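Troubleshooting log. The previous structure file for this entry was overwritten by mistake, so regenerating from the original sequence record. Sequence copied from the archived sheet and checked twice against the printout by T.R.
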Amino acid sequence: MISGHRRSSPGVGLLLAAFLAAGPSQARTLVFCSEGNPESLDPAVVTTTTAMNATWQVFNNLVEFVPGTTEIRPALAESWTITEDGRTYVFALREGVRFHGNARFEPSRAMNADDVVFSFMRQWKPEHRFRPAAGSAFTYFHDLGLADQIVAIDKVGARHVRFILKQPDATFLANLAQAFGGILSAEYADILATAGMPEELARAPIGTGPFVFTSYRPDVAIRYRSFPDYWRKTQAGDLDGAKPIDGLVFSITSNAAVRLTKLKAGECQVMAFPAPADLEAIRTDGALTLLARAELNVGYLALNTTRPPLTDVRVRRAINLAIDKSAIVQGVYGAAGTIAKNPLPPGMWAYDDTLPDIAFDRAEAKRLLIEAGFADGFETDLWFLPVSRPYNPNGRRVGDMIQADLARIGIRTRLMTDTWSAYQAALYRGVPTMMLNGWTSDNGDPDNFLNVLLGCKAAQIGGANLARWCDVDYEAAIQEARRTLDREARTRLYRLAQAIFRREAPWVPLAHTLVHMAVRGDVVGFQMDPLGRHLFEEVRLKD
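Regenerated output below.
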């Protein structure tokens, strides 16, 4: 996958010290201690919240979620109309929105319909000239079924774009607000194509967002500066003694303890995902504030249903029964975790709380293995997350506990991992047999879990259905739910889908979490988000 700019950059601690020494009249930079490298800086390609958060700073969408909510509001489209049959959407674009520039590109015009059409056509049409530039499949566009659902994307004058769908789609607007819907500059793409450098579209991204990308050094930092011509002026003037920021740095720090050390030392002002064991110390530190939010997420163990012996549902059920999820949640997640029994998080509408908890029953697990012909068990691989995530704070420890549980019923696992980007690439290529992963909602709709993570389109290699599971009855239920606008009807269909999921056991659902972040006292305006976004547009710093 495309890793981004590799220009050299000074250490983040030295950078921050230089900015602080410059005094209040000089640049004001906020440093965010993030948890890992983005797999790309192309919003159409990214699949992890780590990378999405890197791109949210640079790009805007036609529509967006109000920060801190799942409510849709206008963004680059100031308004839109939908036909009565629910199949045609026409977006009226905002006037005068400027794109960023860089050493290679200075925009000659404002954002218009050409940019919107380009941004989606490259994902839709296999023959598009910028299709190869992505370096991988456009996973979200594919897994959501948009390639089959869209009939036409048309420019209707300079400021209007029309999408025509085959069928009504209750998720369409919310899907456009996801990261893959970020609007790129068609003019910039043309210049890169002429120069024979299409890969720069992802390595040196150009958007319309509040921050301009300046550099990326893997395992060190992503650097941005504020965009003075940003269309939404939200940071004018002081607020409670805090001033707008001029620069933003993502200090890439995979170890939670190191992130906390940096936060305490003032080397960063916002920290992602402190370790559960450190939460009380943060609470009692007068210089820090601990933030908490119940995000819409799930951590799980995916079982590759195309790989024997996991092709046998009895083996998958045995694995579910053999894992002591209560011990994992208590020992790894602490008070921040709750045991998962469904792929949907409890805070989401359509969640079926009537389904009983999955039992922890080693004797029944062993019986099922014997019935399936594996009285002596078997050997397999088990991949664990190399970085802390909101849905799994310690992948290695969870992997160790699962390995020990499965050993007790004769399943012998080889623990494996890789760097975060390589780990994700391996999962999407279908390499592992059993793998820890998780998901935070992109749009607040059950489709974002039940379709994107478990639908048949997403089961193809490159898709987010890591279990590679495709069930005809399940697929029929989730696709019918997507075509209806009736919330009650959709709920019934999604609950049917959850029951089928429980019967076929393509995952072991592990936990849902209360996600934590920590900030220093000089930070004003940062808020957590139910969709896992880290947004800095309205954040300010006190002297």
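The two ends are 40 Å apart (CA to CA). Archived copy saved in two places this time.
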